[in-house]
Amino acid sequence: MSAPRLTTRTLVRLSPLDESEDVAAFLQGLVTNDVKGPLPVWAGLLSAQGKALFDFIVWGDGADLLLDCEAAAAPALAKRLALYRLRRRIAIAEDTTLGVYWQAAGEPTDPRLPELGHRWIAPVSADDTAADAAWLAHRLALGVTEGIAELGSEQTLWLETNAADLAGVSFTKGCYVGQENTARMNWRQKVNRRLVVVPLDQSDPARQRAAYPELGLAVDHRRVEDIVPEAAPRWMDLSPPA
After folding, report:
1. Can you tell me the distance from the alpha carbon of 105 to that of 242, in angstroms, rounded to the nearest whole number?
2. Under DSSP, is residue 1 helix (H, G, I), strand (E, B) or coil?
């Protein structure tokens, strides 16, 4: 039976190779969200300056964790995580036996926004159908950005990706890479720019991160004061600091 799979997504599996290893504790000290609580969660792996390197959804699978990420970025993500592994007995590798599936209808399971629909992990089948085009249109219609093409690599501070509005950051879980600058921005309410989805004919070439002519949309990295409130998605908080 065919199922709607996101063929541009893949899964990086983190597995303990020793029963004393705790994969969640390892990832907890690296990424922006709390991976020791309820899953799935959306999270980022940042530079030391707090800029996005990779974003992904973290799922639990017994003692393992699965990172639902861009397929094109999976090798670089796995390599980056391996740098932090040091001597810990943790396997980090792409799991091609599983796929990421999505449909707009059904129980909301995307941790960013209920309207993003039903997302799940399942074994890959030759009968799967590609849902990537429908997912892209649905996601951008809701104003949600993701991936290196839109977030950039070391170009965008994590809070500028709308992570606070889309449940992509925990301000209580403790330290992680890039935490200091991210926390400071939050405390001072100094998020001066945001990623925003705009009509292509209204996109600023100097601020444009990605363009989708087939949808008539673009992703811009704009100053907050340049974002027209009525054009912002309903979930985006543009209110000035108290």
Report:
1. 38
2. coil
Provide mean pLDDT across the span 147-155.
96
The sign of the dihedral angle between the CA atoms of 28, 32, 37, 42 is negative
Cα(182)–Cα(51) distance, integer angstroms: 9
CA 115, 167, 34 angle in degrees (round to 5)?
A: 135
Closest CA to 95 of 1, 3, 6, 15: 15
pTM, two decimals, is 0.96
Cβ-contact 180, 50 below 8 angstroms? yes
Q: Which two tokens stand for residue 143?
A: 């104003």
**Which segments of the chain are extended strands (E)?**
4-5, 9-16, 41-46, 52-61, 64-70, 90-94, 98-103, 118-123, 129-130, 193-199, 208-212, 217-223
Instruction: Tell me which H or E stretch contains 140.
Output: helix 132-141
> What are the tens digits of pLDDT across the range 173-216?
999 999 999 999 988 888 999 999 999 999 999 999 999 999 99
